[in-house]
Amino acid sequence: MAAGKRLICDAAALVEGGEGVRFTVRRGDEELSAFVVRFGGLVHGFLNRCAHIPVEMDWQEGRFFDSGGLYLICSTHGATYHPESGFCIRGPCKGQSLTRVAVEELDGKVYCID
Ligand code: FES
How remote is the CA of residue 18 from the centroid of ligand 1, in Å? Predict the structure, then answer.
């Protein structure tokens, strides 16, 4: 299947260190949960799947950041990830990473690149 773009949300919906927006991506036969957040002025996309145990990360829908808005944190056991790289810096899966999903911000919209 040819690569394509799918709209996730308006760019304005993603504020620095604020709530993320969930969407889904197809990988083979599976429809997987994913999310986008804004950090360092840029939009970052990852599968919504902790590197420790493959559960969704947000303790409330869209709440991926810690209270300081600096790190992504898994609601289950507190694994803490850098929001630009997805690298786990603290917790049971320290040294592992979230799986990046290709996203693009263009003309005020955020897209998933399939
Ligand atoms: S499932 Fe995420 S830290 Fe354990």
Answer: 21
